[in-house]
Amino acid sequence: MGWIIDAILFNFxxxxxxxxxxxxxxxxxxVYLKTLQVVRKSLLTxxxxxxxxxxxxxxFAGVIVTGAMLSPLxxxxxxxxxxxxxxxxxxxxxxxxMILLSDKFWFHASGAKNxxxxxx
Length: 120
Description:
Elements lengths: L1 H69 L4 H26 L2 H7 L2 H8 L1
Helix pairs in contact: 1-2
């Protein structure tokens, strides 16, 4: 007779456990969807800022070209000025991206260095 009560209690406990896991699954899915929404909005913002910066660099390059062509210098001097300015417009973002994407930068920025130092 005791095994019947045990079976009923086991079945009841399994149903409670199932209901609890269903609730956790729903909450987990909601958190996942919210995270996806935040990532999507962050990515859209990043792309918008990237294009804005590209337009600013293109406008700056146009100002340099126009200023060099309007100056009363010889053509060869103007071309050297444009060559140097174009090189700088290429190298400055390149160096910035190299620093931003480096492992060392993210090791410090993420706080992993502090975690390793505190673990020792």
